[in-house]
Here is the input.
Amino acid sequence: MLENAAITIFLLVGLLLGSFANVVIWRFPRGESVVSPGSHCPACDAPVRWFDNIPVLSWVLLRARCRDCGAAIPARYPLVEALSGLLWLSAAIAFGLTPRALLAAIFFWVLLILTFIDLDTMRLPNPIVGSLAVLGAVAAAIAQFTAVTAVPLTYDGDVPLVMAGLGLLLGGGLSGAVAGGYALIRGRSGFGMGDVKLLGAMGLFIGPYVLLALMAGSLVGAVYGVVSAARASAGLTHKIPFGPFLALGGIVTALFGPVIVQGYLSIAALG
Ligand SMILES: [Zn+2]
Here is the structure.
């Protein structure tokens, strides 16, 4: 009963923070304040009334149009809200009513924001990635010096600070070396410094499992790249941001990393 209440609260908070994620995704790259003024229609500037600002539901009730000017509201807004709700929900289901669930939910939520900013701007802003890294480092230190189970989300042993540090080094260091080597050989980088920093921050949250996130993200990214290159007409290649794939890899790894590795090892033992 208490658990159901907690899960419901996580879902509702996730939906509400999904609205705020939309604000951050739109305003942060434009250098606008994310707290004031309140939400307004980008087409007619009319303030959004509180009853038109209910996650997902308002978009459906308004039939995807601004109440004042009738401008179309992109489906992306309710999509981000729904994804945010689902990510908070999955954190609660995976980790119960614990500090770890809250950290996982915030981790996922920031990755969601970074995903859409990267899609829009091809950038992963340092202040956001840096804040994520600071949160991860502080949480790992708290886990080390108190009895609180926090990060890495994939680790339950006695040295969380060491494992988070290892994740930081493996995520940031290894990908940094690969990116540097690639840039030296090819004279250009296919993998930005933003991606390297993001992997470092992710490493604090998922420890050495960050390598699994990198592999999973690279795999999905490569498949997407091949498919979109095949579909692009006249051989035009467009740059694909890598952040969204890393974010996806990070979320899947945080939720299922240990299960995936266990499964792989038991299959490998059979072979
Ligand atoms: Zn409007």
Observations:
- The mean pLDDT is 91.
